[in-house]
Here is the input.
Amino acid sequence: AALSAPGTQEFVAQLTSDLMRSELQQFGPALLKRLPASAYFGTLAFPAGQRLRFARNNAYIIEWVFALDAMLDTISDLSYAEDLNKLLARQRELPLEAEFDITGLDLATDPCQSLPGIEFSLLTLVDTLQPLRRRLAEEAEDEAGLHLFDRYLISCVLPSMMVEARWRLGQLPYPSFDEYLEVAWISISGGLCAATVAATLPNPTRLLREAGEATKLMLHATRLRNDLATVAKEEGEGTPNAVLILEKSLGSRATAEQQVREMIDSYATRLHQLCETHLNSSDSSDPLYVMYYYVYHCWVITMAMYEGGDFIAPASSKGEAR
Here is the structure.
């Protein structure tokens, strides 16, 4: 219904076109095929009156995370990921207007060379993040906003994704269900997207903390919904997946899938109750209302985008996800 609202499809199309011409084009045509899904999600996660303010940054970080995930799903040498962590930490230390300098960094790889199996380099990931960081700093009402974004990326998202890469490469033991979910709800990166929203609002750290329970429920449900959609793909890759892990203990794919669906329903019910309380008792101009609206609609949109496949915009036959 939201997609059919006047002007929405035109907004998504324009945002997709703008992002196609942005720094993201450095990731190459394979990843750019995902842009319609990123633009769709970034648009519908906000009320129509707030899309101009929030949608571009949100769609941009979703697409950037797709590229990061493509790297970690492809590489066979984790020194690439360790070097990326060093590069991003250096980027964080430098003034926003400074030219990036890797002098003195102890890197195991050449950050300018295309990564094995994909069309961009480590330095491309760093370079394409910088325009977003500059926009967040310019738009922030609180200087803590950019620091919150950087900290969440470097301290939460990257470590969780590296654990998943080590599982894939057999460098860590195959996880139990609880071990898997403790990592995977963070690696799905919806928390980083929420940090991108909070970064431009007043008191961003407080906002992210106060919306934290709802965000965690949304991310658990999203990760499990993703795993239902990608079970066959990840089985072929040898990648841990909630359904596959439960199947090992339950002995049945159908039973495992049913148990995952029941967990999703439980998380979604609690999320709905929590968000409804805050959305019904808050003014739409309240920054906390913006956060709860975003978190709740992330889940609503996620359900729609997994109905037709693996994170696909319903109005488009294109778009993929993790």
